[in-house]
Amino acid sequence: MAVDDLNTWLGCLGGYSNTKTPNIDRLAESGIVFSNAHCQAPLCGPSRASIMTGLRPSTTGIYGMTPDAKIRWEGNKATKDITFLPEYFKQQGYHTMGIGKLFHIHAPKNVFDESGGRVKGFGPLPKKRFVWDGFGQSDRKKYGRTSTDWGAYPEVDSLMPDHQSANWAMERLDHQYDQPFFMGLGFLRPHVPLYVPQKWFDLHPLDSIEVAPYQSNDLDDVPSVALKINDLPMMPSTQWAKENGEWKKIIQAYLACVSFVDYEIGRVLDALENSEYADNTIIVLWSDHGYRLGEKGTFAKHALWESATNAPLIFAGPGVPKNKVISSPAEMLSIYPTLLELCHLPAYQRNEGKSLVGVMHRKEEGQSYAMTTFGYNNHAIKSNGFRYIQYEDGSEELYNHALDPHEFSNEAGNPKYKEEIQQLQSFLPKVNVRWDDYSKYNFQPYFVEQKERVNNSIQ
What we know:
Number of strands: 16
Helix content: 25-40%
Number of helices: 15
Radius of gyration: 21 Å
């Protein structure tokens, strides 16, 4: 189960701001939560391409949005003959099914034996936006328009695409199969626009909302390239939200969307528990990245900081210990090899991620780092309580989470951390390929410029 834009504000991860996620929490109690899991890219397209190919963005050059049908093509040396995660199960004799947002849109043609298809758009949409026009203070030609908005809509859950996707999955759990099955279920919420019926807002009264940690001068000590990446005027800024009394309302809407999708997850879990497959099905719930709710000055993913990279990763089912939290770093890249091992299938030698099964059973130490990439040669390393970021121009950030969990103070220039920085640098990828021709991110001017510059210099 993939949940779009789901951050770590969940009950099973400590809860925050009156969050209510009873179904995700019960899934966590029945399995293992990796509380320090990180995406390979803080953006839907490249993150999902990484999960489904088992390869890092720095290996594939898929740094931006890429059509599902063009993740694998003759011109990409890394992916041209790669086997996608669902395809590997198909090759091993599984009947494969999928619906909703799994790859960036849905899935390349014929990846699934049985497809419920993509969900068109992020609707349903009201005739007029409630609060945010989608442009903000941005130059419309330069930045484009975000779907960001928030409010109670529509009237009933049955009008939501995620409800329909859950119905599709539940129906198939009621079928009999002559072979083992693989099912992918991709939920849209809490991706913007933050629209769900009013009853989900009612679960989160405004007076119970706690806003995210924020300092107005937080970005004064970060490199200029970090500011370029974080230049998102089409998104609401934290300062705007404070001045206009919308900060708690945005968080309320986000939490309402999370509670709604938690309910839909619960419906599917109930259907599985009442089916003949209850005792022999592995479940993995993951998100493609985190989501900032005011941290670092905005409401977006799009960054190499903790609040944008840390995301839920939960495994449950046969062979998985119950009610356990593992805090060592983990990567979404590990989903592919972990599922293969849990299902007793041969390892796929092309996987760049490491199976987490040994860590689950304490047979081996957890991976010592997790790496996130955003564009060409911009990387964040989470390891040993530190976050280290190195940008393409060599500029750096370093945060000591033991002393500074909210990453307010960049310690990259502090000589006392010289050894830590050197160790963290050793995890950086040795290969950084040019942007894939079909991969782009025109929503952000920095990445438009970077792709043109890098690809003109690396042929």
